[in-house]
Structure formats: structure tokens, C-alpha cells
Amino acid sequence: MPKQDQLTLAELFVEIHDNLGHGISPADADKTKYVKYLNHIQKVLSRRHGWRSLERNDSTFILDEDVYSYTLPTAICTLIDAALIDDTVTHLASCDADWTSGTAAATHDSSFKRFGAASLKLAMSAANPSGVMAYSTITSTDLSGYTDAMLGFWIYSTIAVAAGALSIVVSEAAAGAKTGVLGTNYVTCTTTRAVTPYRWQYFKVVDKAFTNLNATISLSVFAESNYSTSAVHTIYIDGVGLYARTYGGQHWPLAILDDESFTRLCPNPLYYSTSRPTAIAQVGGIDGEQTLEFFRIPDASYPVWLKYYAWPSPFTASLTTAVSDIEDIDDVLIAGATWVAFCKERAWESAGQWEGIFRRLLSEAASCDRKRDGWHPVRQPHPMGSSQFGVDLEVPANTQTGDRSTTSGFFYT
After folding, report:
1. Among candidates 142, 235, 151, 141, which has minimal Cα distance to 197?
2. What is the pLDDT of residues 135-169, one digit of tens each?
3. Cα dist. 218→98, 153, 155, 186, 238 in Å?
4. CA-CA distances (angstroms) from residue 78 to 50, 51, 381?
5. Distance between CA atoms of residues 323 and 327, nearest Å
6. pTM
């Protein structure tokens, strides 16, 4: 789903082609090259710099007793923060599959998600949706231990939705229905603020008691009576989770070590002690297999909260309506791809000019991103290289002279 005011891939093609002086109608062969350049620039910028729009959280990672090394989740580009947590988390229903249509057409979108393998996509016709928009049937679950809980979920909408207009209903009745007595047979978790269009937002509904729900069999996305619109629109839901409050419990922050520091301090796992882990490292080559490694060896099973920068979704030449997951850097992507294209054409003077434009725009974009509310630097990042703007561009520094005696992984054969 395109984000507001961002250029689509088709529009990026036109801008790059025009910058190269080739007109505004690139051929398919040109598009294939431009996709390659754009994807590489996205990847380099992602692994060298944390962009706020790529910031993610994951509380589903579980450490097993006596296991200290894990394959790095594919979504993670760079860790920001990590902690062991003692919250009890129940992910009520996966949004990856198995939701049924109600008053909305329910499908699952693996290309536009915030959590897991896919999101729940709800397509609404022009008529106002009402009641159960979609529901998921789950194995009977006893939630009575959640006496003071928080239900959280991600939502993305193509229109504004009023506060209180959308709910997640957790029910002992079939199809996520509000059958029986509120608080006894079902619990309604209603949004407390408006949904802003074209942005993933995390909603949490606190102080919910599930004390009487000892045989929960379904949940639903529910349109309340004030859900009013005549516009065709789409809503995405993801990561529906129920969190129990553990008063007096603890969260233990994990020190984030880079690969080199971790290897130096913990050279041989055979000599690790067994205890509650105190450090985490992202180990391995950037483009090769990577692992998450913990020190010390876990003495029990621990839920882990991870905050990280994600890899952006790669462009595909055939999906011309796609936009970059990194928000508000279209001009950076255009300038970077133009620079690389001129280098491939061995037009060194033009390449040097566009290198300067690219670096200036990158500096401005990075500065603006840091000034947004909620931004913070990576505490101890995985070593990703450095330069004037915190970005190792993997290109020779002598673009101006045209000397290509130094080979670089940035350029394609």
C-alpha cells in the first residue's frame, strides 16, 4: 500500500531516466538496471544508518535453556535495543492466515505487514461497514489469568477512522460475536484515539480484565456504531497480542556488543557460564549468514524484547506502484541511482556532480530523520562502516578523477 506523497517505482524510473538525459520513457532493460541500483542503495543506507520508518519491535523471540546462538531473524538489519522480559505474552491469533470475511473482504498480504509473515487485509466497499468485519477462530484458550492486561495491535488505514470506531473483540462465542454479557462472555478492546491514514500505528488498550473468559474461541475486528464512511478504503491489522502485567517483575536490559567486541570478550562458548544472559551480539557477515548470540548461556527460557531497524522491502520491476519503506528519501534514491548509472556509463564528470548531490541530500535527510520525535541513536551498533554522514557507501572516493583502479562491490558487472 503506497504511503502518502511518496513516489512510486514508476515515477522513480522517470526521474532517473530524465536525469541521465535519456528522456522520460525508460525501456524495460533500463528499468531492470534502475531497480538493481535502487535496491542496492536502499540496502546500503539501511545497514549503515537507522531510519525511523524502519524501526520495529518484536516480543515473540524466546530463548531456550542452554541455547546461546540463534539464526538472525530475516527482518533484522541492525539491533537498537534488547531486554529480557518477564511479561506473559499471548499472541491471540496470527494475522498470517485463517481469518474469515465478515462485512469486509478479508485476505492476507505478505508484501505489506508489520509482524510475522503477513497482515490481515480488510477491503471495504463504499457502504459503511458494521459489526464483525472479519474474525478468526482459535483453539479454546483460558484467559482468566489476565486480570489486568493490555491488548495491542498494529493498524494501517487508507482513510481516517474516528476514535472508538474500531474494536478487537475477544469472545467465547463463535465468529468473534458480542454474544452474552460484556466482561463475562466477551471483552471489547476499542481504539482510544483516531487512526491517522497512511501510517502504521500501534494501538494498546490497557486495564482490560479477562477474568471470566476461560474458553475463548474467537476474536474479531469489529466496526462500532460510529464507524461512518462512504468511501472505498482498506485497513490492515497485524500483531494482535495480549500482555499480562507483572507488577514487581523485572525487565533486564541486554548490553549490545558489536561482532568484534563480542568475539574478543567471548571467544569460546565452551567457557561460557550458565546464568541469565547479560549481553547480545549480531554476529556474522552483513550479506552472509548472521546469528544472534547471547552471553551467558541461558539457565532458563526467557522471552526477549528486540528493537531493531528492519531491511526495506526490495523493489521489483513489475510492481511499479511500490514505494520505498524508507520514508521521505525519494530524492536521495533518485540521486544515488543517477550517480551509479553515470558511473556505469563511465561518465565521470557527471558522476562526480551527482555524487555531490547525493551526499548533500543524504546529509539533509539524515538530519531531518534525527529531529523527528522518538528518534534515538543506536546504543552500540553492529560495526557497519563509517563516513562523513555515518554511511560507508562502498564506492571509491575518487569519483571526480574517474580512477577505477579500486574495485568496489557497489558497482555491478
Report:
1. 235
2. 999 999 999 888 878 788 889 999 999 999 999 99
3. 11, 16, 19, 10, 16
4. 8, 11, 7
5. 9
6. 0.59
Domain layout of the chain by residue ranges: 89-244
- Distance, in Å, from the CA atom of 119 to the CA atom of 60, rounded to the nearest integer, reads 16
* Residues forming beta bridges with residue 201, ordered by sequence position: 155
Q: What is the CATH number of domain 89-244?
A: 2.60.120.260
Which of these, 290, 321, 325, 282, lies nearest to 39 by C-alpha position? Answer: 325
Find out whether 277 and 84 touch, Cβ atoms under 8 Å: yes
In sequence order, the β-bridge partners of residue 304 are 61, 84
CA distances from 13 to 126, 178, 323, 348, 359 (A): 33, 50, 12, 21, 20
Report the run of H or E that residue 40 belongs to, with start and end: helix 28-48
Listed range (227-236, 323-332, 377-386) with the worst mean pLDDT: 377-386
DSSP secondary structure of 69-120: EEEPPTTEEEEEEEEE---EEE--S-SSS-EEESSSEEEEESSS-SSSS-EE
Angstrom distance (rounded) from CA 34 to CA 15: 11
Helix axes 330-344, 9-19, angle to 10 degrees: 50
Residue 407 has pLDDT above 60, yes or no: no
98: left (phi over 0), alpha (psi -120 to 50) or beta: left
DSSP-based three-state secondary structure for 10: helix
SS3 of 19, please? helix
Predicted pLDDT of residue 47: 79
Look at residues 1, 22, 31 and name the one whose alpha carbon lies nearest to residue 12: 31
- CA–CA gap between residue 112 and residue 320 (Å, rounded): 15
Q: What is the rounded distance in angstroms from the CA atom of residue 5 to the CA atom of residue 204? A: 28
Beta-carbon contacts of residue 322 (< 8 Å; ≥ 6 apart): 2, 8, 9, 313, 315, 316
Report which of 160, 163, 141 is spatially closest to residue 92, judged by C-alpha positions. 141
Nearest to 119 by CA among 212, 221, 250: 221
**CA–CA dist 11, 336 (Å, integer):** 15
Question: Which own/partner contact pairs does 350-357 have at CB distance under 8 Å and 24+ positions apart?
Answer: 351/399, 351/402, 352/399, 352/400, 354/19, 355/395, 355/399, 355/400
| Per-position DSSP letters for 370-402, written without gaps between them | HHSTT----SS-------TTS----S-S-TTTT
> In this structure, how many other beta carbons lie within 10 angstroms of the beta carbon of residue 7?
17
Q: Which residues partner with 79 through β-bridges?
A: 308
